[in-house]
Amino acid sequence: MTNTEVPRAAADAAARGLAVEFIPREGSGPPAGGLVGGVRIAKTVVVQLGSEFVFVIAPLAAQFSWPKLRALLGVNRVSLPDADAAFAATGYERGTISPLGASTPWPVYIDQGLIGARIALGSGSHEFAALVDAAEFVTAYGAKVADLSAR
Question: Minimal CA–CA distance to 20: which of 144, 125, 118?
């Protein structure tokens, strides 16, 4: 792995006791079928609440519910930061954002539908995906599990 972001993500995960497998991604954009390395892809969205941010992890193919997220956070308004603000908040470019190795350890919220499986997260790099056990990730990052799905 020659990418500088992957070692940062790996070191953060290791410090938290989280086992991660970094695998090369092929092509650009999300793979067809929503799988990488045979594992379901989970998107990480950085959401802004005033001057603070949170990570929201949801299935790639599903939309999460903004009303459910706002209720969970106890706020009336959240927004998506522009690319520069997202980079400043996380240290990662859009399309690579991950709690693993992020420049600031913002709170993490994960959709309950991902628990019980291995998932593919961003690694900070367009070249690699980070495969983790979702339940172990929750423990390592103190993530809050919630029903965030839009139905």
Answer: 118
